[in-house]
Amino acid sequence: MKKGLLYLMGVLVFLVLAACTAKESAGTEEENGAANEKKAEGEKILQLNNGEEPTSFDPAIGFDNVSWNALNNLMEGLTRLGEDHTPQPAVAEEWEVSEDGTTYTFQLREDANWSNGDPVVAEDFIYAWERLLNPETGSSAGFLGYFIKGGEAFNSGEGSADDLGITAVDEKTLKVELENPTGFFLHVLTNPAFFPVNHKVAEENPEWHAEAESFVANGPFKLESWEHDNEMMFTKNEEYWDVDNVRLDGVHWVMVNDINTEYQMFERGELDSAEIPAELSDQVIDGDNVQIVDQGGLEFYRFNVTEEPFQNAKIRKAFALAVDQENIAEYVVKNKVKPAHGFVSPGFTNPSGEDFRDVNGEIVSFDPEEAKKLLEEGMQEEGYEELPKVTLSYNTENVNKDVAETIQGMLSENIGVDVELENTEWNVFLEDQKALKHQLSRSSFLYDYADPVNFLESFITGSYMNRTGWSNETYDELIVNAKSEADEAKRWEYMYEAEKMLAEEMPLFPIRYYNQVEVLQEGVTNILRHPVGYLDLKHADKQ
């Protein structure tokens, strides 16, 4: 562990500099104007940081945390995750499931309305889901609709909307037919990709979601104001069917993409919640006002197998085994995160009650001697006397930089490979990664629904989430079976095998599993964070 201290010294120097150069205007009276006005009127306004501008509040497009964490409080689907993290009735007050598990009939609440007073009807779901799956929409979340009969065919351009298994039985009854029995389908429906869209509003104004003035909500809050790249103000939605149980009057969101600045704002009382900077973790993490929740997700690095030298599996494995996940978790990221020695997060239990992670065990572990051996073998196979230049890319953020620099040091120390670092802002980074312009790049994954196949399906041929150039027919077949097999025990066996194949082929390597750590102001309660799901403020309160 001594070498971890060497990495830590560099991290601390960076963090001190970052704190000194942070956005100076963050948290000023002018920026917090909307919240201050409300507080002066004696209202309960929760103050949160969204990090940056939402990508989109269009449910089919905003496929990321900075969009869906906020959107999950403006809108609501057929089901909503409860305090026990299981699906509960939401817009749908009840449902029936056919004996074969392939047909769901949802009864929508009579008092479910949009913020403009329109009723939420079955056609709003059909409109939204057809748009999600329409290839012309280009939704990155389209694959989530493949459980619906005809969903994949329509999304791939081989079918039509008329063939989709979604029908409005009447204005308040929606029938959904699935391709196969899917035991976790009610959890899938809690995902913001399946939120309804007011079809009348959207047909009149396709950009309804882009500004506060035109936005219509059907969730606990509505969008009162939105100063792009700066702040948003949510207020209680009086048209919401369960408005009597919404305790806050509003939520004020700032957009500060620096954890140190965020924490400073928290200490000044300008935020009610904040992440804990790594260098303060030891001092703060065990406080009574700290909330820690496990999160289904993984930080990992992708290899681009279409670029040298990562076309060679042994070279990829050498890089992976040269990285000490324990060191990164304990000394760099901190905040009680767990090192990742597999790809599927802990917390998913099979039909026998066993955790996926326990059954498949540690399949990617730090082994510098084996890494050296594999690197030598891989270079011989490729005829390399010298390894081609390698650039490690990451998106701009303090912790990402710390981890990247630590990996850079480990590769140099453990296998004698010097890599260059490159960082870009998120939107540029993401587009370059999708276009396979990176050689080796930082990545993250948060589960969209509560089943291990959600992560594993990301690496099938042609998946939007793949971004490695890797393709394997056997792996693709395993995932097809893992999504269609009715026998749950067999289905899990397919998933175990698929994960082992990822470790053997190593188109990516794991760093750490995610958790959600936040420090809260006194009197702030009931902020609900799910292991798999998005931030829920419906029952949040502030004294």
Automatic annotation (TrEMBL):
Alphabetical list of InterPro entries matching this protein: Peptide/Ni-bd, SBP_5, SBP_5_CS, SBP_5_dom
UniProt GO BP: peptide transport
PROSITE patterns given in the database record: PROKAR_LIPOPROTEIN (PS51257), SBP_BACTERIAL_5 (PS01040)
Gene3D superfamilies: Dipeptide-binding Protein, Domain 1 (3.90.76.10), Dipeptide-binding Protein, Domain 3 (3.10.105.10), Periplasmic binding protein-like II (3.40.190.10)
Pfam families linked to this entry: SBP_bac_5 (PF00496)
Membrane topology: Lipid-anchor
Keywords from the UniProt entry: Lipoprotein, Palmitate, Peptide transport, Protein transport, Signal, Transport
Subcellular location: Cell membrane
Predominant cellular place of this UniProt entry's protein: membrane
Annotated Solute-binding protein family domain residues: 86-463
Matching CDD domains: PBP2_OppA
GO cellular component entries: ATP-binding cassette (ABC) transporter complex; outer membrane-bounded periplasmic space
Record carries keyword Hydrolase: no
UniProt-listed SUPFAM superfamilies: Periplasmic binding protein-like II
GO molecular function: peptide transmembrane transporter activity
Keyword hit for Protein transport: yes
Segment forming the signal sequence: 1-18
Family: Belongs to the bacterial solute-binding protein 5 family.
Name used for this protein in its record: Cytochrome C
Organism: Virgibacillus pantothenticus
Taxonomic placement: Bacteria, Bacillati, Bacillota, Bacilli, Bacillales
